[in-house]
Design a protein that fits this description.
2 domains, Phosphoribosyl-aminoimidazole Synthetase, Chain A, domain 2, homodimer, 60s Ribosomal Protein L30, Chain: A
């Protein structure tokens, strides 16, 4: 019966998962899982991290990210050590997006027989160092073989004060929209790597590093959450556009951001000219920046934002405003014209 | 430099990971990770679960298990639904081995584009049902593409009372060695599947189910831990022989078990004759039984063990005794002769 179904062209269930996006598959999962869960599960499938209550004041946050060779990375672009750091960083970034403190990680590593053991060691060293930078620790994991190619899957846990936790929902009309750091650097770095492999000109080093070794914004995330003025937060992994749309959907609001205010660094501006690309488009749709996008109440004092910036040594830029849900999500162009924000970016699935 | 090293035949670091066993790679990891960790990390790499203190009374336990298509399973042997159940079960079994209560799971699923979406749904259903049987919940996860073949990685959390927790260490000379259930059924089921695929004779159904849908011994694990008489515990995943050796190494003791006392069910005895195999060897070295192996103090009352058995509806069999470390680990043969216990079984790496 199963086989018959699969041969039929008309049955939609016979389609491969490639015909679906990540969002559609997550919706299928949500439809299959029980619709109710016990009260200690504060957040399940659908935010940066799952959140499970520990006691009256604290919750555990948990996230995972699986990286597949030749899908998510190539060893001609990234060293094993950098891969280890990067795999840890993208998980830490999800922890940062909740305003949480990372604690421990489990590492699953599936490798072919001929995977060089020195590369394996370097991956572990990279994970170790990235976690050490953020006072987190590897406590376990799992090794397996693959017929071909490396799969690296890191699960990361953290802890958060329930009163301080931020999620994608919580933004309200009138709230201001801000981001940490420069955006688009990672996309610029990727394009440079694709053009030059590892022999790129020195002046693009910062962009390449932004791509290969993103710095999770743990301290900024904690200060933003602790400020008491933030209303929602997400890390920019898919793209500024997609992740802002995630916040709008979860918060049931719209947003208006100004293209001109999106923070683009000098290096990216230079690289964009060189690559014949638009730096602000790269910043808007590039993804994998692992900066934080957050919203704050309209009356948030300038001094509060300055304190967060100084305390975390991170640039903070206001790029727009949350508006009513019915007004949609839109972009104010450099000429003042408005266009809908398109959900373009990096679909990690 | 790195490239030069890799071309050299004499550099041991140029070897592929396939030249190492799982234990050797875990030792490399331990050598790379920091030698000290904060006091809240009670157990790191090396037991069934990592253990992290939550407060004075409770700890979080965490484990993960990655399954790779054509390495750990084949869809000609197992349905997608069964695979989901099984992947959840092997993680739950690690939680059981600590005497812990499972809570939440994260699921990473990496699939090729043409992976049928109905299979994907069935995997999620299987995971859901296995977790529901044990009052645990999927709270998140991660989807990714692979060039080829499915990789399913489940990360499972649980909670344990620190006073009740059992680990691999803790066994002392004189302690009695016990196991839950029948052993070898899973190996028998696998051999039947390899011989017949899914068209096996009905009388081997129980063995095939033991292989495809092992039942994690959560309730038995909790009762064993709560009894106050148990000293060490592990789940039998590699094999009775290997997992007993794990306990001996972690506890710094030896062990003597009697081949004749290893519990073998009638179905396995029949299948063994049929397959031309030795049922007790299958029970000793087969692995993947996901029963519990535990040790109890010498003076443990018979009534305590009977209560655990009744309370968890699980057979419990005493198979030997913990002895001094210097006496090694040995097997008393049916003819009364002693031989060293060989570390044969299923290397999951």
């Amino acid at each position: 019966m199963e086989k018959l179904k699969r041969q039929g062209q008309l049955d939609p269930d016979a389609r491969g998962v490639g015909a679906f996006g990540e969002a559609a598959l997550i919706e299928r999962i949500s439809g299959i899982l029980p619709s109710t869960s016990p009260p200690e599960i504060i957040l399940g499938v659908g935010d940066d991290c799952a959140v499970v209550k520990i006691d009256r004041e604290r919750a555990l946050v948990a996230t995972g990210d699986i990286l597949v060779e030749d899908v998510h990375f190539r060893f001609e672009h990234i060293s094993a050590y950098e891969l280890g750091r990067r795999a840890a960083a993208v998980n830490l970034s999800d922890i940062a997006a909740m305003g949480a403190r990372p604690t421990v990680a489990l590492v699953s590593c599936a490798m072919p027989d001929d995977f060089p053991v020195d590369r394996f060691d370097d991956i572990i060293r990279g994970i170790r160092d990235q976690l050490a930078d953020n006072e987190a620790h590897v406590v376990g994991g799992n090794l397996a073989r693959t017929p071909d190619g490396l799969t690296l899957d890191i699960f990361m846990l953290g802890e958060v004060r329930l009163k301080r936790m931020l999620t994608r929902s919580g933004a309200a009309a009138g709230d201001r929209i801000l981001v940490t750091g420069h955006l688009g650097d990672s996309k610029g770095g990727l394009m440079i790597l694709e053009k030059y492999k590892r022999s790129y000109p020195d002046r693009f080093e910062k962009l390449v590093r932004a791509h290969l070794q993103p710095a999770p914004r743990i301290e900024a995330g904690r200060l933003i959450a602790a400020s008491g003025f933030a209303t929602a937060m997400i890390d920019i992994s898919d793209s500024l556009a997609i992740d802002l749309l995630h916040v709008c959907r979860a918060s049931d609001v719209g947003a208006e951001i100004e293209l001109e205010r999106i923070p683009v660094g000098d290096e990216l501006a230079e690289a964009a000219v060189f690559l014949g690309a638009e730096s602000r488009e790269m910043a808007l749709y590039g993804g994998e920046d692992y900066q934080l996008l957050f919203t704050v109440k309209p009356d948030t004092p300038r001094a509060i934002l300055a304190d967060i910036s100084r305390g975390s040594d991170t640039r903070i830029t206001e790029i727009g405003t949350i508006i009513a849900s019915g007004d949609g999500c839109r972009l104010v162009d450099t000429d003042g014209g408005r266009r809908p924000l398109e959900p373009d970016g990096w679909d990690h699935f």
